Every structure is written in structure tokens, then in C-alpha cells.
């Protein structure tokens, strides 16, 4: 949908606050009316649903009373595109440094300013200097930077490309406390078939690895795996896993979701059809995932507007590019993560707030520990990969001491 002009935006906002203008002050105070309107979801001009705080609605109310309909528009910032807070000495030196060192990163250029006592790391702010470098084309190799337009693409067979991403979900109750949920989904590019998806209480690469392992076990290994997760230890391990499985891992830069349009469109369907409304589909994580699996089953059978057939029909009628793993191949060891842990005097190690017994290890040394991030019931240690069981204090108390 095209971006609405200022007149449409002002009229849309007026439609919300008009109830405040015509309210009966004897029956309802302004604060009560603001609270009531803030609890309602409104359909925006682009089709999305949104709700506003009482302070925002109150601001619109007084803007309209003081300036009429034009006052409900968004006024552009007067200082946009300018950087008046940056001293001219810093500006000149940045241009000179970029000319002398085209391969330097901006962070290195700022360190040079600190060494030359031109910048104290406080004023102007680092974010201000980064914005200035962006608008002044002072990034590394500016002469090589070129805008490459995004082009629509589609693969022919199931398994040629899987896309993975996270969606912020509703809150559920876990042990009496509210926890935020995150939907992780893996979708096939060619068929729009949901390879694997589920709600979790964390947004991490460890969750992504667990979902990828379940997907490979069910469908075989794809050719490409597309994700936008940032650089971290778990992300490096994901690269290791994909390399050993023969999967080409593709990372998109953070904040630049080019190429993930299909999974983003699926998330919009989840928002509009599954999570729409004030009431959450379930109050527990298990109930939420159960309801979501039922919704995905119906999604697979509905006609997809881009495909002309349902994702399930597309999946069954097209060849699969996934390569099934032999039954003798165990992929679980590839997904195990490694960490060095200290052995304490009571022959135990600490891993992710859990204590494990390592009977054959010497106190004071450090041992290599392998574990599955999503299942810590069993870990392995040492070059022989011996199992390290969680400490059971009750069983230890009942042991016969000789």
C-alpha cells in the first residue's frame, strides 16, 4: 500500500480523538476517556493494528484544540540532514583521514581523533559522528560503495533455500510469572511450506540450531540456509554445523532484511490471523505451540495468493532438493557446543547454572565439555566424551561410605 499523505494521516488521527472532543464531561473525565481509548486497537492506513498510550492520545487532543486538523500532522525535524554540533576541526580532519586512509574503518578514524586530542569521546556523541559519516559518504571505500537494487527471486525446488527468522510473540505465564515469547520459523522459499516453527522464551541462535536439527532430521539437509542472526559464539558454531553438513549458510546484515521477504510475509499472516485480537491464543507455552501447530496445518492447506495453490500441494508436487542423511549418520554430535570448565574440589563442574559430576577428572584442572544448549540433562567431558550427570544430592547422601 502506498504511503499515506499528510491529509490522510491527520484525518485518521482525528477519527480517534473525535470521541474525546464530543464526550460528556459529567459521565466521563478526560483521563478515564484516554485510558479507555488506549485499550483499543486501531487499524492503520497500511492495514496493521496498533494501540496508543494515553499520553499520545492526550498530545493529539491538545494539538487539535490549539491548531486544528493541520496540527495532527507530523512536523519534520528542522535539523534533519545537518550536523551543527560537530566542530569544523573534526569535520576537516575526518575528510583528511578518509582521503589518506580509504581502507580505515570509521572506528579507527575516531580513535585517531582521540589520539590527536580533537575528540573527547563525549561531545559530540559517537552516534552523531556516525550519522555525519553516513550522510557525508565517509564510510570505508566510499568510491566503491554502490547501491545494488534488490531483485525478486524464487527457487524451483523444495530445499534449495530455507529462510529463518524470529517474530516477537505474546506473553505467557511460566511458573507464575509473565514471560515474553518469540516465534522462530523456517520457511521454504519455493513452496512457502513451513519446515519447522514454534514459540520459545528466548531469541537466540541456540534456538535456531535446535530448529535446524529437527528440520534436517525430518526433511533432510537443504542446499542453503538463510538467516540474519548477528555475530556471536553460537552463530560461529552454527557456521561450523552448516559447513560440516554441507549447507551453505547465508547471513544478512542486521537491520537490512533484504531477501527475507517471504518469511516476513508469513509473519504478517501470523499477526493478522493467529495473534489478532486482544486475547492471546493460550496462556502457557505448550498451549500456545499446540494452537499454533493447528493453525499451521490449516495454513498449509489454504490457497497461497502468490503460488496459486496451497503450500502443501506445492510441496508434494515438486521435486525436493534436500539430501536425506543415511540412517547410520548421527547429526546430534555436530550440534554440540564446546566449553572449557574448571573442575572443583568435589569433582564437579558448573555449566549454565547447573552442577555436574566428573568423577574421572582431577580437581583444579580444566576440561572440555560438550553440551546441547537446548537440553542440559546430559553433557560430556574429556577427550573420550564421558557422560557427566547432573548432581543428585539426595542420592549422594544415601551412599554407603566405607
Automatic annotation (TrEMBL):
Gene3D superfamilies, per the entry: Ribonuclease H-like superfamily/Ribonuclease H
UniProt domain Integrase catalytic: residue ranges: 148-319
Family annotation (Pfam families): HTH_32, rve
GO MF term set: nucleic acid binding
Descriptive protein name: Transposase /integrase family protein
Biological process (GO), any one: DNA integration
PROSITE patterns assigned: INTEGRASE
InterPro entries in alphabetical order: Homeodomain-like_sf (IPR009057), Integrase_cat-core (IPR001584), RNaseH-like_sf (IPR012337), RNaseH_sf (IPR036397)
Superkingdom of the organism of origin: Bacteria
